[in-house]
Amino acid sequence: MVDYLIFLAILTSTFSLLALGLNLQWGFTGLINFGHVGFMTLGAYVTVLLSLKGVHMLIAILVGASIAALLGLIIGLSTLRLRTDYLAIVTIGLGEVIRLVINNQELPVGDNWISGVFGVQNYPIPLVIIQPNIFLRIFMIGLLTLLGIVTIFALYTWVSSAKKQLKTFIGKHSIYQQEFLSRLIISIFLGLLLLAVYISGVISLYNYTPKAGLLLLCLLVLAFVFWRLEIALRSPWGRVLKAIREDEEVAIALGKNVFWYKIQSLMLGGAIAGVAGAFFAWQLSAIYPDNFQPQLTFDCWIMVILGGSGNNIGSLLGTVIFFTYNTLTREFLPRIFTQLSVEQLGAFRIMFIGLVLITMMVWRPQGILGKKEELTLDK
After folding, report:
1. Domain tally, the chain
2. Which range is the signal sequence, renumbered to this chain (predicted)?
3. How far apart (Å, rounded) are the C-alpha atoms in residues 147 and 155?
C-alpha cells in the first residue's frame, strides 16, 4: 500500500509539472498547444540518453529542459504568426511527429545504436545507488516535513484570504461565502491526501527505497517551479501575458512586443514539460515511444480545465482530482461491474470522465478555481 501511494504521488507530481507548463501557455497566454506531450518526450529522451553517456543527471535534466525550450522557440518562430486554430493543428501534428521520428530512429544508447521502437532501458535513476545513513535519512524526512508544513501554511493562507473577503464585502456576502466554503473543502481534501503521502513518504524514507528519494526530489522541484511561477505571473511580465490572452491588440497598442512574450511563454512552458518528462522517465525506469501518446496531452488539458485555467493552484487541484478518479475507478469499477471486460471498463472510465468534463463546461466553464471573466476557451 505504501509503495503504491508513493507511485501515485510521483505520478501526480510529475503531471502537476506538466499541467503547470500548459497552464502557463494556455491559461495565462491564451496559446492553444495540443502537442504538449512533444516537449515531455524530448525532455525524457534527452535526459535519459545523456545519462547513459555518463553525463551527470542534474546536467542531463537541465539540457533536456533546454532542448524542450528550444522546441518552443522553433514552434513560436514558425507558427505564432498563424491564427489560433492553425496553431493548435500545427502543435498536435508536431507532437506526434516527434514520437514517430523517435519510434523509427536509431538512438545512441550507451556505446550502441538501438532502434527507437525497442525503447530505452537500464538508465541511471536519481538516488538509486546511495545507501543513506540514519542522519541522511532523518535529513530527507526533515525536508519532506518542511514541504508539508509550507504546503499546509499556504493552504491556510489561501483559506484565510477568502475569509477576510467574506468579512469585508458585506454586500456580496453569498458570493464570498461560497468562495470561502469551496476553498475550505478543497483545503481539507488536499490536506488529507497530503497526510497520506507524508506518512507513506516518511515510512519509505526511513526504510529507504529509491522511489521515496525520487518522490522527495520531484516534490522539491514541483514546489520550486510553483513558487517561481507564482512570483513571475504576479509581476508585470505576468500581467502582460494576461493582457495578451484577453486582447493582444491592446497589448500591441501599449507598446509590448507580443510576439516575444508568446515565445517566452512557449519556451518556459516547454522547459517545465521537459522536466516533467525526465521525472516520468525516471519513474517508469524504461521508456518507449508509445509511452508518449497524444492522449497524455489531452489528459493534461482535462487537468487544467477541471482545476481552472489561469490558476496554478487550480492546475494542481485538477491533477489531483484526475488521478484520484483514475485510481478509484481502476480499483472499484471491476468490483461493481463484474460483467464488463477489461476493455469495456477502460472505455467506461474514459466515457465517464468525458461526461464529467461536459457537465463542468455547462455548469462551471471556468473550472473549479478559475474566474469566468478570465475564461480562455472562447479566445
Report:
1. 1
2. none
3. 12
Find the CATH number of the domain harbouring 89: 1.10.3470
- Grid cell locating 334: 471491476
Angstrom distance (rounded) from CA 360 to CA 370 = 12
- Is residue 331 assigned to a domain? yes
Inside any domain, residue 150: no
The amino acid at 320:
V
359 CB-contact burial (10 Å; exposed 0-12 / middle 13-18 / buried 19+): exposed
Is 201 contained in some domain? Answer: no
Task: Please indicate, yes or no, whether the overall pTM of this predicted structure exceeds 0.85.
Answer: yes
| Mean of all residue pLDDT scores within the chain | 87
Distance in angstroms (rounded) separating the CA atoms of residues 80 and 255: 18
Q: Are 251 and 243 in contact (CB under 8 A)?
A: yes
What range defines the domain where residue 370 resides?
2-131+208-374
Residue 156 lies in a domain: no
pLDDT of 145-160, one tens digit each? 999 999 999 999 888 8
Q: 311 φ, ψ to 5°?
A: -145, 115
Give the rounded distance of the alpha carbon of 81 from its chain centre. 27
